[in-house]
Design brief:
The structure is a homodimer of 232-residue chains. With 232 residues, chain A is α+β, with helices and mostly antiparallel strands. Chain A has a four-stranded antiparallel beta sheet. In chain A, α1 packs across α2 and α6 crosses α9. The longest helix of chain A has 26 residues. Chains A and B meet through α3 and α5 of A and α3 and α5 of B. The structure holds a DNA duplex (30 and 30 nucleotides).
Chain lengths: 232, 232
DNA sequence: GCCGCGATTTGCGGTAACGCAAACCGCCGG
DNA sequence: CCGGCGGTTTGCGTTACCGCAAATCGCGGC
């Protein structure tokens, strides 16, 4: 990946968007590139947090394993998303494992390099705080959902969120363009594989979705799904 | 509250702890004081975020109301805790309402004043990011709990966390020194008042807790509670 | 001291969702 | 073309938890 390609990635990244050209250029200069094969991890939960990453292409699933062996999916991440930084800044081990769900290309900065960047370009700190604030809000919303809403609503809301941030238009509706298993959905919504499967089956029967026995879902009637997500 | 009292509060606050004296003094100088009566709100969910607050004395309960009228308790906050800042920095309305559960005294900074402070004292930004990172981790942990663990474990873990951050030693064990209703616990753990009451009743019968029909709980056998929180 | 209000306790169904188990299907490699 | 593997679907019994409703109690006001 040459310099202009790196610049293009950096300026579309949420952490750098809207910052002056020289900031973007400096950031692009300091970055390394790393490729992660499908199924591989960028780093592992518990590792020392030494590097910041930004997704250039591809997609990651951020997994957290609990002490008793259960697994939850914190989020999916795509181009422009920042990975690992919270742990680096706090000086704690990475709290989760980002797995490549497709082949993924990342830009990488060492802790020191990013520190220099932030000192040389103060607005970066503001941007970073903005992003962390967004994560906090998102987590609060999910907590509220899991704590108060029933499973059907949570699954609907989750599918809609993923579709909003990664969906592509196809003939029959909006497609989720990567492998999203029932297990993944279960681990995002705090339920079981079985319940997800049953629920989706119902929706497929009603023509809201397509994608029986296929992990590429297509949402045919998004409006109906919104109704389910919001129904009292 | 005179200047030296304000300084004492500021240097114990998580946002300023360990920073140079001149930073602390500058912060204390820029602060106003505000008193909130028991039961009153510091601000309301949805208000424009214009000020940063730090709790000096007292205790707040951070509530979030969902669109469909349900309520969840995000956290309790005591002396040293930062309130409202995430929303101010992100330039979004306050996402929750902090209610005084006891009479509470706060230090207040306007958005502009805090901005000046952060520009004059760059390490502040780092501290702020640290704190936000802590919130993210805490939320991820709670999400994981609500999503994967059963009610009994969640209640035990919640009581233990509150006891750790606010418990006081008394003759029979560790007391939670403020009014914590069954309803509050229900809204923190994502369950109902009834289930919390039943669960606590059981524990009181077993001698793990004291506090029947009283909102000041005393934990008599913390170790047993830890076992419950961690049991497979 | 008595009364009434709000929080808590407790009983009793009801049910959403789990968990096991088995059948099913599409894909990939041989 | 076939067989096996991994993800999915589906049936069925179980259960943890909810939701209503009534009884109980402590506390503050009169």
């Amino acid at each position: 990946m040459d310099k202009s390609a790196r610049i293009a990635v950096v300026e579309r990244a949420k952490l750098f968007a809207g910052l002056p050209d020289d900031t973007v250029a400096a950031a692009a200069d300091g970055a390394q590139v790393r490729v992660i094969d499908k199924g591989e991890a960028v780093f592992r939960q518990g590792d020392d947090a030494t590097h910041h990453f930004i997704v250039a292409w591809g997609r990651l699933r951020l997994d957290q394993t609990t002490p008793d062996g259960k697994n939850i999916v914190l989020r999916f991440m795509g181009p422009g998303d920042l990975v690992g930084s919270v742990a680096v800044w706090r000086n704690v081990p990475y709290p989760a494992t980002p797995l490549a769900v497709d082949e993924t290309r990342l830009l990488v900065w060492s802790e020191a390099r990013m520190m220099e960047l932030m000192q040389a370009h103060p607005p970066l700190a503001m941007k970073a705080m903005n992003m962390m604030g967004g994560r906090i809000e998102e987590l609060q919303e999910r907590l509220q959902q899991v704590a108060t809403q029933q499973v059907e609503r949570r699954i609907a809301a989750t599918i809609l969120k993923i579709a909003n941030q990664s969906g592509r238009k196809v003939e029959t509706g909006v497609e989720i363009p990567f492998a999203l298993s029932r297990q993944d959905l279960a681990e995002m919504t705090g339920t079981t594989l079985h319940t997800v499967s049953r629920t989706l089956s119902g929706w497929i029967d009603e023509g809201i979705l397509e994608g029986r026995r296929s992990s590429h879902l297509v949402i045919c009637r998004p409006h109906r799904l919104v109704e389910i997500a919001e129904q009292a």
